[in-house]
Each structure stands twice: as C-alpha cells, then as structure tokens.
Amino acid sequence: MQDWNQLHHYIDAIQRLPADKPLTKQDLLIPDFLLHREGGLEMYYAPHNEYINQAAKLVILGITPGWTQMELAFRQAKQDVDAGLSLEQIAYRSKQAARFAGTMRKNLCSMLDQIELDTVLGLSSCTRLFEDQDEWLHTSSVIKYPVFSHGLNYTGHNPQLVKSQFLSAYMCSTLNNELKQLANPLIIPLGKMVEDALNLLVSQGVIERQSCLSGFPHPSGANGHRLQQLKTNLPLLKKQVIQFFS
User: Fold this and answer.
1) Is 145 in contact with 43 (CB distance < 8 Å)?
2) How far apart are CA 10 and CA 14, in angstroms?
3) Nearest alpha carbon to residue 221 among 54, 28, 66
4) CATH, residue 229
5) What's the whole-model pTM score?
6) Which of 11, 84, 88, 142 is surrounded by the fewest CB atoms within 10 Å?
7) Rounded to 5, what percent of the chain is helix, strand, coil?
C-alpha cells in the first residue's frame, strides 16, 4: 500500500494555484513548494513521482524532473484536486501527464524501439508503454523532485550528482526505498549521469548490476550525440534486453 502523505500535505497549496492556464515559475517556485536550498541548488515539490507502479516490468530513470514536467504535473493535479479526485488518482494522472513529456518522450520511445524492447515485450511500439500498456512501466528520477541550479534545470553537473553530499544522500534514501517496492524490473538509466548514480547503488548492494541497462544515451534533444551513441551501443543494448527478459 502506498503512502500519499506527501501529496496530502500539499493539497491546499495546489488548490490555491490558478486554474485553466499554463503555470509559471512565479506560481510554482515559491516557498509553499520549496523543499531544500543549498548553495545554488533548490529542490521543489512536484506531485507526479509520488505514484509507484509496484508491478512494473520496466523502470525508466531520469536525473530529476525538469520545469516542463513540473508544470504539467501541477497543472493536471490542480484540475484533479478541483474535480475532487482521490489522492491516488491525482498522483497517477499527474504522472501520466508529466512523465518525459514532449519531444523527449518521442525520442525515448523511438530509441527503445531501436533496441528492440518493443519486440521483446510483444508491443507494436514502446509508445504503448505510455498509453494503453502503462501497467508495465514505472518512470521516476534519481532525484524524485525537481532540482534547479541557479534557476535552471539541474543536469547532473555543477555539482556532479554523486559528488554532492546533499544530492547523493537524498538519492540513496529515497531511490533505495522506491526500488525496494518493485519486483525486479529492468532499470533503464537515461544517460551517463544516471548510470553513474545507479552504479553507486549497485556498489551498496541495493540493486543487482544485471538489472541495470548499460550504455543507453539520454534522449533529450540537447544531447546531439545521442543517435551516434545509440548506434555504437546498439548490439550491447539489444543483448542486455534479451538476456534480462529471457
């Protein structure tokens, strides 16, 4: 059974948000949602990573939710709070709205199809993991809540995630707890920064190395090398997927 206490704590603040329009940083990057500030880093609450699909066969992990995901999650949550939905419904629907939304989701699904995950799972395309077969999928982030560095999306650099005492300690406590609720899924880290973070958990015995896909590039359009990286790593990626699910 999942604990919705965090979401419950923010319902009143969500209810006060403006309705029926995109939200701004002036709406969301406010003391009501601020979780922690350290140096140039700020961490804010967002509702979409509260929902954990404990039956997932596949986990896709980013670094931390960016502004786009945060805004979409809050906008959906505001609609659902106003509609009187349950905490579980609010968490799930904000997850649906926000997970790797936009161009990144399109890039991600195309890349997953290229490593033939769709074939191994018996899907026509991995886009269906975000649609009618999302019961197989859990999405999350190494840092589950949005982090901003000097007001910009945190990318895992400056400071490096595994070298930041605050971020690495937060990751170890929250991600450990999250992954322990899942039944041995394949974990796909998006990019080297996330892969390095998972390697830290492997070294601590939290997860098995064979459960983590190695060499999958970050699907962001800002990663101009992603297609070449994918092409280079394709044989190894396909082999890992087949071995895990065989």
Assistant:
1) yes
2) 6
3) 66
4) 3.40.470
5) 0.93
6) 84
7) 50, 10, 35
